[in-house]
Amino acid sequence: MSLDQMLRLFAVAALACNVASVSLVAVRRRGRGSDARGAGVVGARALVGVAALLALGATLGSLYLSEIAHLEPCRWCWFQRIAMYPLALVLIVGWLRRDRGVHLYGLPMCVAGAAMSTWHYLLQHFPDLEGATTCSLTSPCTVRYAWEFGFVSIPYMAGSVFVLVGVLLILSRHRS
């Protein structure tokens, strides 16, 4: 599979994360006022397990892009990785240990990662937000290695995972 095909696959996965996030929030809001018997079908442990798989998938995807496809991560990509890599590990360990408080460790990483992804995405649209001296000359933060469907870049993909994992962790908190 070529790099372009992989980036398209990652972009589709990011959009699926967006749809899942919006759907989960909508179902949660709709189920508040009514007798939502189906809302409790998926338990907290399953939600954390899915969140762990998503974070692990994002981690492996970023490693694919840098180590196999040889795309050099910029400064902001590294910051997002600093949030995503431990998030995957924390969620896997929390899931294995059946830790009901794993959201306490994971949510701050999701919020930080989503904020960094948003800033990086804005830098790609508005390069003047950050001076050229603060990013690497060999890998500027404004470069778009991917621009699928006219708006999906790598920071967008990472942000989509951070948001969905955060939503899953919030939902798991309410079910534990």
Could you explain how this protein is built, in words?
The chain is mainly alpha-helical and 176 residues long. Helices cover 70% and strands 0% of the residues. The protein is built from five helices and no strands. The protein has helices at residues 3-32, 44-68, 75-96, 102-125, 154-175. The relative contact order is 0.19.
Task: Offer a few descriptive terms.
globular; 176 residues; mainly alpha; 5 helices
- Rg of Cα set: 17 Å
Sum up the overall morphology in one term.
globular
Largest sheet: none
Average pLDDT level? 90
SSE run = HHHHH
Give the helix level as a range of percent.
55-70%
Proportion in β-strands: under 5%
Oligomerization: single chain
Secondary structure class reads mainly alpha
Low-confidence stretches: 34-39
Number of helices: 5
Q: How many beta-strand runs?
A: 0
- In whole angstroms, the N-to-C terminal distance is 41 Å
Blueprint of the fold:
Elements: H1 3-32, H2 44-68, H3 75-96, H4 102-125, H5 154-175
Helix pairs in contact: 1-5, 2-3, 2-5, 3-4, 4-5
Quickly describe the structure.
The chain is an all-alpha fold and 176 residues long. It has helices spanning 3-32, 44-68, 75-96, 102-125, 154-175.
